[in-house]
Each structure stands twice: as structure tokens, then as C-alpha cells.
């Protein structure tokens, strides 16, 4: 989980169970997205308004991609999210994008 996502959530969900670390309307809603992807073996695009840790609205777009180690059964789901913050909102990250790109060289 990237630093922007951790800062948006207000906590780091790494290593936690879904019911402890979900982001969205509620845990059952989030669980339903994962179940759809694993059972249908199809990607899922979801968008929903959420509230930031500061209590302000944000639009969140999430892409769930099914992955399989044997080419048939989904045993991993890659999740990519885009957080669109309202006016005056920003995420505090440890490193800005330009510094991150330079660190890769």
C-alpha cells in the first residue's frame, strides 16, 4: 500500500484482514467486490464517494484485477485506486513524485 493511500485512510491496512482494513461504505460492500472478482474471474471497476480522514468528501475510483497462479483459479486480486480530493484537500506523502522518480534511477 502506497503512502498516499495510507495517509488518505489514516492507517496502514498492510497485513490486516479485510474486515479490519476496508475502505468504502462498509465491510460487506468491499467484501462483495472481492467475491465478485474471485468468483467471476472478471475485473471490476467501482466508484463511490467517501469521506477523507479530515471529514471532507472525496471521489474514489477502484479497479480490482483478478490474478491466478495456475491460469484458472483466482488466488490474488490486484487493487488500484485513484482518490480525487475536494478543493483544499491534499495527501501528505513522504516523497513527492519527482523525488520518487529520481530515486528509481
Folded structure, characterized:
With 105 residues, the protein is α+β, with helices and mostly antiparallel strands. It has helices spanning 3-9, 18-21, 27-40, 97-104; strands spanning 44-51, 57-67, 76-85. Strands 1-2-3 form a three-stranded antiparallel sheet, with helices on one face. β2 (57-67) and β3 form a beta hairpin. The radius of gyration is 15 Å and the shape is globular. The chain starts with a helix and ends with a helix. The mean pLDDT is 79.
Keywords:
single chain; 31% helix; 105 residues; 3-stranded antiparallel β-sheet; 4 helices; 3 strands; alpha+beta
Secondary structure category = alpha+beta
How big a fraction of the residues is strand?
25-35%
The largest sheet has its strands arranged as: 1-2-3
Shape: globular
Strand count, sense and barrel status of the largest sheet are: 3 strands, antiparallel
Number of helices: 4
Low-confidence stretches: none
Could you give the order of the helices and strands?
HHHEEEH
Oligomeric description of these chains: single chain
Proportion in helices: 25-40%
Short description:
The chain is an alpha+beta fold and 105 residues long. It has helices spanning 3-9, 18-21, 27-40, 97-104, and strands spanning 44-51, 57-67, 76-85. Helices cover 31% and strands 28% of the residues.
Amino acid at each position: 500500500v502506497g503512502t498516499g493511500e495510507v495517509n488518505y485512510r489514516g492507517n496502514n491496512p498492510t497485513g490486516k484482514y479485510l474486515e479490519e482494513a476496508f475502505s468504502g461504505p462498509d465491510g460487506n460492500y468491499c467484501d462483495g467486490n472481492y467475491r465478485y472478482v474471485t468468483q467471476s474471474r472478471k475485473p471490476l471497476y467501482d466508484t463511490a464517494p467517501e469521506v477523507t480522514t479530515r471529514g471532507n468528501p472525496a471521489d474514489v475510483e477502484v479497479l480490482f484485477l483478478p490474478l491466478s497462479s495456475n491460469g484458472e483459479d483466482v488466488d490474488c486480486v490486484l487493487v488500484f485506486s485513484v482518490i480525487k480530493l475536494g478543493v483544499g484537500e491534499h495527501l501528505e506523502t513522504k516523497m513527492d513524485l519527482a523525488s520518487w522518480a529520481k530515486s528509481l534511477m
